[in-house]
Amino acid sequence: MKRFARDRLRYNDSIQCAAARIVSSLRERARQRDPIGNPNGEYDSFHIRRGDFYYTRLEAESIYNNSKDELSEGRTVFVATDHNDVDFFSPLADHYDVVYLSSFKKELEGINIHFYGMIDQLIASRGRVFFGCYQSTFSGFIFRMRGYHAQKQRMQGYENGTLLNSFYYSGLAHKYYYQQYSPIHPPHYVREWSVSWRDIDKGIA
Known about the structure:
By secondary structure, this protein is an alpha/beta fold. It is 35% helix and 10% strand.
């Protein structure tokens, strides 16, 4: 059933292709900024939710402080967000090369604006390091896609269903949830669960 969900319940090709164009441009941007230290053009990513969820709504300075130990100065960072005021993100932009979906208008030509959120998710899922918003199902699906990628590419920790470069930015209480396997338990909606991707292809020749 979970293989069916991964392989059949997916975003359509126009969404996938738009995201792929932007991921390619992001990697080229990151590569050009540091061709020796980052020859593969890796970038990092966030999903920062501001429109609601007041109980996990942090100021950008706190988000920076909660995430800086996992990120390197000057890295290219993609921010998926529902917040339109880019000045809010200045504490991040002071340390990183911060970009948003709106930075890639050429790659988005002809794409329905109602698809932008889904494109945000796909791009964020490909970040080397990802920080999501606790209790957000939008972040939850990004974590799930990262789990799919980890299984396919056999990244470190994939046997246990862990995501070693995936975190929450809301503080130490939630930050490291994906560093160890946890069975599903209530409340179920607050995060994604490793059972969604762990051993997803087991038994397939």
